[in-house]
Amino acid sequence: MLRTVKPRNARSKRALEAREAKEVEDVRTAIFVKGTHTGEILNGVMKELMALKRPDAISFSKKNTVHPFEDASSLEFWAGKNDASMFLVGQSTKKRPAGLIIARTFDSRLLDMCELGVDNFVSMAEFKTPKSTPGHKPMMHFASELFDTHPRFIQVKSLLMDFFNGEVIDSICLPGLEHVISVSIAPAPSLQTANPILGDSQEEDVKNLPKIHIRTYTVKLLPSGTRVPRVELTEMGPFLDLSLRRHQAADPEMWKAAMRRPKLKKQDLEKGLGKKKKNLEVDEMGDLRGRVHIAKQDLNKLQTRKMKGLKGMPVEQDGSSEESEQEDDPRQKKRKRD
């Protein structure tokens, strides 16, 4: 069961409401934590990844004795105190050198995490090319079918998407697409596919899994003579070669609560976002259009506006009736007497 915290006053109530789940989530804040032992390579990797994550990043300058796979209480405490949901923990030991742990929390509780080993690292400083502006949302590219079939790579894809994903936007401005992060997998023999991120009991040895390659490029838009510009990619860095190590899958109940979506409002249902209604559709411009079926109408019986100019001419009467009307007129009688 997930714990519930009751507010004591109005101020704490507003603070809790700001941290509640939302239909459109805020940007995930990541905390960078250094373990007791970190080498030069690991420090450089964390520094470069923090540069890509800014301004939604918090760095702990001091080293901390933290072991997420044995005890995650420290991560849960920092998550609730800093309103952060992502962690990047760097720890280097003799058994597992240059290790990066990407952890994710839900409701200030640890959801899942994965450990990656840094096999190769190329810094941004080695590329004498323009860099992207901090705070811009990157484009993500995953170049392998394993990211959709293998449980370990499905988890890595989900963690990287949440880590680098920025603010949710409604429209895209082409000049704002400054860099792309490409994630690929080295060639490997056919691997056994399994069900999603919750994991598989019969998991194969991680040593047989291929390495993950992360490459970062800047996007340059050039004129092409048409409305669609020509795109060129320039190496920006950092370049990372990672190998899979330990991992912890999400608890099924907590994962179900984290993936729960709120009910659609009445306005969203009317716009066609919910259950499809009969004879209602949303066009390409986002306008709701409906179709009404009516019976065949008789236009001769159609009620129109009553105007004198539209009235028909009176029916002509015969001459005898006209003479009788003239005789009955008193003015005509007076003229006859005169």
Sheet with the most strands, sense and barrel status = 10 strands, mixed
Number of strands: 12
Strand fraction equals: 25-35%
- Which secondary-structure class do the elements indicate? alpha+beta
Count of runs of 4 or more consecutive helical residues: 9
- Rg calculated over all Cα atoms: 36 Å
Low-confidence stretches: 193-203
Which outline best applies? elongated
End-to-end Cα distance, whole Å, is: 116 Å
Estimate the mean pLDDT confidence. Answer: 80
SSE pattern, N- to C-terminal: HEHEHEEEEHHEEEEHHEEHH
Helix content: 10-25%
Family: Belongs to the RPF2 family.
Organism: Suillus fuscotomentosus
Subcellular location: Nucleus, Nucleolus
Domain Brix: 28-253
Summarize the structure.
The protein has 338 residues and is of the alpha+beta class. Helices cover 24% and strands 25% of the residues.
